[in-house]
Amino acid sequence: MSVPLPADPAAGRIGRAVGALRGRIFYGWWIVLVGSAINAVGGGVFFHGFTVFFLPLKAEFQTSSAAISVLYAAARLEGGLEGPLVGHLISRFGPRAVIVTGVTMAGGGLLLLTQVPNYWTFFFVYVCIVSLGYNAGFFHPVSTMVNSWFIRRRGVALSCVSASANAGGMIMAPLLATIIQVFGWRWGAAAAGFVLLGIGLPAAIPIRRSPESVGLRPDGEPSARTSHPEGDGSPPGDEPDFSVREALRTRVYWALMGAISLRLFVTTALTTHFVPILVWGGMGEAAAAYLVGLSAFGSILATVAMGWIADHWRKPLLCSLGLVPMIVCMAGLTLGHPTVLLYGFAVALALTMGTAPINWALIGDFFGRRSYATLRGLMAVCYGTMTFLSPIYGGWVHDATGSYALVLLTFAGVLLTTASLFAVLRVPPTPRRLAGS
Predict the structure, then answer these.
(1) Residue 54 — very low, low, confident or very high, per pLDDT cuts 50/70/90?
(2) Which of 389-392's residues contact partners 24+ apart within 8 Å by CB, and which partners?
(3) Chain segment 76-107, per-residue pLDDT in tens
């Protein structure tokens, strides 16, 4: 059963403040701005920044690379398992409450890491406090609130908050690496914790769960276009409005879950093994590391560009076509390693990553705003498990064969299946309770 979007208790006060901005900037774009700030520090610290802690932690605890890798894999798996609960909490309490809780746990946990004496204490704090907070308080609630504020401009809005994570990585990873090199990893963890708390908590203050809660409509449409009373959370007449149960009964939901999970199965492994794949292809480590930054920068451009295109074109077809360059490059690298393909690999990965926010926008386009958080959370169980397995598969095959050829060939086949799934996606039929109204 879908959960309505109740009016914010402070709607009157915020409504007056928002009213002063009408005719200038739609408040939803401020939501995108603060969401981007939250995702920038979260993605910069956890998604892109984890790698700079890898070797210092290995040296500090005198353990293996596999043991450090388990930290990242366990965090990804945990994110999938907690997804349905997080989705329910977002629907029940709103994204702001979940973001504040998650940022506090992640930031406080990073500060607590500075005092851990051994690997297993680090494992417990990182997985049970830091990662729990990160998985709950960043991408999931941010995308949910942006989805609630936009319909026509949903693609570009979600693309902006997605691109911010790569922008944060370009800043936070080098900054943390410098701090760790000069002062040690514990100071790096402390700096990351203070950045999360210092930016994430203030950025959560202006968040409102829906435009209706402050007397507005999605995309800034005039309220006169609908007869729904202000702040009731009712969707516009042309917006889909599926309950969770109704969405789960459609084939489209399961096909979309499969497509998103398969894409993440590949992209998570490719980003984990990015430098080793290029070195296997004959590129030096320094040049491969340079391409990491190039690919991250390219992801920003691709994400924003595809988000704009998605608002004017068929999103499922764009998701499908965006995977084709990656399929071609991976298949080509199994046959030979020309330099142009190695650089093309970085560019193609950026294009593939650029389709990610469009994937999340499709959930809102197909099923509406009310059940978005829960529907995305349920998908996390599937893609969380797959992103736990795929990096391990890539490393196991390379260790056994000394080559990434079989890995890339497998991933090319998986992406081809993914592209086909996206290409055949269609808008699901209107629920029966609405079809006859």
Answers:
(1) low
(2) 389/265, 390/265, 390/266, 390/268, 390/269, 391/69, 391/72, 391/73, 391/268, 391/269, 391/272, 391/273, 392/73
(3) 777 777 777 888 888 888 889 999 999 999 99
Q: How far is CA 127 from CA 47, 98, 108, 269, in A?
A: 14, 18, 13, 20
Place of tokens 């922008």: 167
Which pLDDT belongs to residue 230?
34
The superfamily CATH assigns to domain 11-219 is MFS general substrate transporter like domains (1.20.1250.20)
More confident call, 212 vs 186: 186
What pLDDT, on the 0 to 100 scale, is given for residue 17? Answer: 52
> Is the Cα torsion angle 420, 426, 429, 430 positive or negative in sign?
positive
11-219 and 244-428 agree in CATH topology:
yes
Sign of CA dihedral 148, 150, 152, 155: negative
Q: What is the CATH number of domain 244-428?
A: 1.20.1250.20
Instruction: Provide the greatest CA pair distance for the chain.
Output: 67
Length of the chain: 437
Q: What is the DSSP letter of 199?
A: I
**What is each CA distance from 212 to 150, 209, 220, 234, in whole angstroms?**
12, 9, 10, 8
With beta carbons less than 8 A apart as the criterion, state whether 242 and 371 touch.
yes
Of 390, 363, 388, residue with least CA distance to 377: 363
Backbone angles phi, psi at 48, to 5 degrees: -95, -25
Residue spans of the domains in the chain: they are: 11-219, 244-428
With contact defined as beta carbons under 8 Å apart, do 373 and 99 qualify? no
DSSP alpha helix (H) spans, 227-284? 244-248, 251-272, 274-280
Q: Mean per-residue pLDDT for 14-39?
A: 74
Contact, 113 vs 122, CB < 8 A? Answer: yes
- Phi, psi angles (nearest 5°) of residue 399: -65, -35
Give the residue, 263 or 225, on which the prediction is more confident. Answer: 263
Q: For residue range 205-261, what is the model confidence (pLDDT) as tens digits?
A: 888 878 888 888 888 777 544 433 333 344 444 678 899 899 999 999 999 999 999
Cβ(13)–Cβ(220) below 8 Å? no
Confidence (pTM): 0.74
